[in-house]
Design goal:
- This protein is an alpha/beta fold.
- The chain is built from 10 helices and 13 strands.
- Strand 4 and strand 5 form a beta hairpin.
């Protein structure tokens, strides 16, 4: 028979009056206090997809431009821009720390100058509010020293796997590691955004938070998870997908935001969106690309069917989807 026993109550303070002010306890709130705040929306840094405080992630396969996207976001924040890829920026301090484990100072210098060729910013606007950390030895000491004299809106960690050295499949270890960054975010009232990767075997699957590399512990700890992936047909297009966002409407998590990625490694929003189900490259996307390409060149449906040796209803289905 299953049984259990409760611990004996602590009687050491019996008879001793204790004056406890519950309202002064850190992290303890009454329901009335929370209701009286009249919070009608979650404060966001990049509205509405990235909150102002907490930990989030941008994932994707290699060579999709994830670091370029995060650098562009960081530069936009520190230059005081009001918009990033069609989303409002709600920056308080216009200051960012970027932890780069893959690109050193020479590579970052090159990439920043390359972006300037696109005239996305004026060199005279650049300031000291975007700080890059390229050596992770003594990282926490560096972060604490910087944050003791500077308030920031965002800390980018590029990338998670270079900082985390334990088992990726051990949920408890992953969550324990992330708890330290989560505490940092709340202590300094900023957002920590991790660059992460999707598993090799899931790159062509429909976008999903379950495709992330490692244990479910990583995804579960994130307030928001984004994925950046290449378009199946057009090498200059990328799809920004919201995989997880507890406070976002479902409409944000069903279609990608289609981005243009130019030769200067900068992104722009095309104003188009695509259903996640159409981003599954396990379908015959090559055939669909060929059909659309021939149609754009002026071929009629009958001609396309004959040229590709398929049925006309197949051509019609692709062009009308």
């Amino acid at each position: 028979m299953f049984s259990f026993s409760l611990p004996e109550p602590d009687r050491s303070n019996r008879g001793v009056e204790r004056n406890i002010d519950i309202n002064s306890m850190e992290g303890v709130y009454s329901i009335k206090e929370l209701f009286d705040r009249q919070t009608n929306e979650i404060p966001c840094l990049i509205e509405p997809i990235l909150p102002s405080v907490g930990i989030c992630a941008l994932a994707g396969s290699s060579d999709t431009g994830k670091s370029s996207l995060l650098r562009q976001m960081a530069i936009s924040i520190t230059l005081g821009k009001k918009n990033f890829l069609g989303f409002n920026i709600n920056s308080i301090h216009q200051s960012v720390i970027y932890i780069s484990t893959e690109d050193d100072d020479i590579a970052i210098s090159y990439l920043i100058n390359k972006a300037q060729n696109d005239e996305s910013y004026n060199v005279d606007e650049l300031n000291d509010e975007l700080i890059f950390i390229t050596q992770i030895s003594g990282l926490w000491s560096k972060l604490n020293d910087i944050l003791s004299v500077k308030k920031v809106d965002l800390i980018v960690v590029d990338s998670f796997t270079d900082l985390y050295s334990n088992s990726m499949n051990d949920s408890n270890q992953v969550r324990g590691f992330l708890n330290r960054f989560n505490a940092l975010a709340y202590n300094h009232h900023c957002l920590v955004l991790f660059l992460h990767h999707v598993g090799k075997r899931t790159e062509g699957l429909k976008p999903s938070k379950h495709n992330l590399l490692g244990s479910q512990g990583f995804e579960a700890k994130m307030r928001v998870v984004l994925e950046l992936r290449k378009d199946n047909c057009n090498s200059t297009l990328r799809h920004l997908c919201v995989l997880k966002g507890n406070y976002l409407p479902e409409a944000f998590k069903e279609e990608s935001f289609v981005l243009k990625f130019n030769e200067n490694m900068l992104f722009s929003y095309t104003q188009e969106r695509v259903l996640f189900s159409k981003l599954n490259s396990s379908t015959n996307w090559k055939l669909e690309c060929d059909i659309r390409e021939l149609s754009e060149k002026g071929y009629k449906q009958v001609e396309i069917a004959k040229k590709l040796k398929i049925s006309q209803p197949t051509v019609s289905r692709v062009l009308n989807s």
